[in-house]
Amino acid sequence: MSRSAHPAGPRYADVLPEGGHGAAPADVNRLDRKIWPGGVVRDAGSGALTFAGADVRELAREYGTPAYLIDEDDWRRRAREWVEAFGADADVFYAGKSFLSVAIAKWAADEGLHLDVCSGGELAVALRAGFPASRLGFHGNNKSVAELERAVDAGVGRIIVDSHDEIERLAAIAADRGVRQPVMVRVTAGVEAHTHEFIATAHEDQKFGFSLAGGAAADAVTRILKHAEQLELTGLHSHIGSQIFDTAGFEVAAHRLTEALAAIRRDHGIELPELDLGGGLGIAYTEADDPAPVAEIAARLKEIVARECDAAGLAHPRLSVEPGRAIAGPPGITLYEVGTVKPLPGLRTYVSVDGGMSDNIRTSLYDAEYTVSLVSRASRAQAALSRVVGKHCESGDIVVRDAWLPGDTAPGDLLAVAATGAYCRSMASNYNHLLKPPVIAVKDGTARVIVRRETEDDLLGLDLG
Ligand code: LLP
């Protein structure tokens, strides 16, 4: 379609520059159920969004914008769905890197999840929440001695070792304390999966894990077994990527991991009792994304592991998985207020909100796509091709690259961006000295601030002049 000069005013849904935005939606007020949290409804009268029973306009008035909102029931329901789908003979470790706070760690504990942490900071949050240390897993390619000491002292249930250096360090720490620390070996299975594709040949060239193909994983196992008094090797771990929609990559990884388990039995005469397939299952950010139900994924992964183990004559190991985004992403939205609206004739409308790349770096970092909606009222205006941008001094400060928003979107309107519960607050920054937004849990119409908004005093408290 040509980039014709558009008619006067902001109504130019007929103008379609190239891009992945598709056609204007028939109803710009419609909310796609697979993208938005379970507790989101558009009020038939006002057209405003009710979020877990609370009117977003009131939430904005009370807590300000930008704000991250979490639908607590939806979060907990997803957690339970994972735990139930994998059943009693598997463990679901919530990947805390997607978003962790003391309240979230408590929800995870309540719902029967285990918890993965990957830094001393995440460990501190889990411990502050009283999360049972025996249900913690500790990841990372460069855990410091202090972090390892703290994990061992706390009684962390499993440490996923990622380098020869770490094996020696951890063995020394365990010897010093007179304890035997359970560990898993993170392997690079030679599979990399992202969204709908996976590649199962190379991808050894990365910082994580011990290569299966190159023999480093076998060396790591031998080294750990040499430290058998200090380190208890419980199994192998692999994580193949993120935002994955089919199980083919996991199938290849499971095949290679069971081959490795069989080789360990052959070389050392032991069958390791655990296998961790990592996280990475995808969620719907836009209508184009179509995640399979968790029960289906669980059944498939269990079947793959069982089949591979049967073929290798191995007892079925206890399976674990590590979803982050799939639990934390969909229940969260970000609420913004529109500050300025700038129609660019023949191109699109730039709608600026009061946050940006400091509260959601994913669009600029990964070209991530999001769904955004006007949530403080309904609109009958024609949809206008828009770009939702932040307030940072950088032209790459884009929140939603291609969005169809009502053509009458105006300063003071509230916009919500869906599926921001994972990797938004956890990757937030203070770029341009913006203050990090609060995280507000909403349940049955009642809101509770679980992480408060930063203040200028917080910022300046670090600045020693
Ligand atoms: N387990 C391990 C060992 C991981 O490294 C990760 C994510 C997960 C589990 C959880 O993956 P999930 O189910 O959330 O996809 N910042 C990026 C994602 C980085 C993920 C790193 N590891 C993003 O915003 O998309």
Structure, explained:
This protein is α/β, with parallel strands linked by helices and 465 residues long. The protein has helices spanning 56-63, 72-86, 102-110, 120-128, 145-154, 164-177, 216-226, 248-268, 294-312, 325-328, 362-366, 456-461; strands at 40-42, 49-51, 54-55, 67-71, 90-95, 114-117, 136-138, 158-161, 181-188, 192-195, 197-199, 210-211, 231-237, 241-244, 274-276, 318-321, 332-344, 348-353, 372-374, 383-389, 398-406, 414-418, 439-443, 446-451. The strands form four sheets. Strands 4, 17, 18, 19, 20, 21, 22, 23 and 24 form a nine-stranded mixed β-sheet that branches. It contains twelve helices and 24 strands. The model is unreliable at 1-20 (pLDDT under 50). The termini are far apart. It has two domains: 16-71 and 331-461, Lyase, Ornithine Decarboxylase, Chain A, domain 1; 73-328, TIM Barrel, CATH 3.20.20.10.
State mean pLDDT (0 to 100 scale): 93
CATH superfamily of the largest domain: Alanine racemase
| Total number of helices | 12
CATH architecture of the largest domain: Alpha-Beta Barrel
Which stretches are low in confidence, meaning pLDDT under 50 for 5 or more residues running?
Answer: 1-20
Radius of gyration: 24 Å
Strand content: 25-35%
Helix share bin: 25-40%
Please supply descriptive tags for the structure shown above:
Lyase, Ornithine Decarboxylase, Chain A, domain 1; 465 residues; alpha/beta; 24 strands; binds ligand LLP; 12 helices; TIM Barrel; disordered N terminus; 9-stranded mixed beta sheet; 8-stranded parallel beta barrel
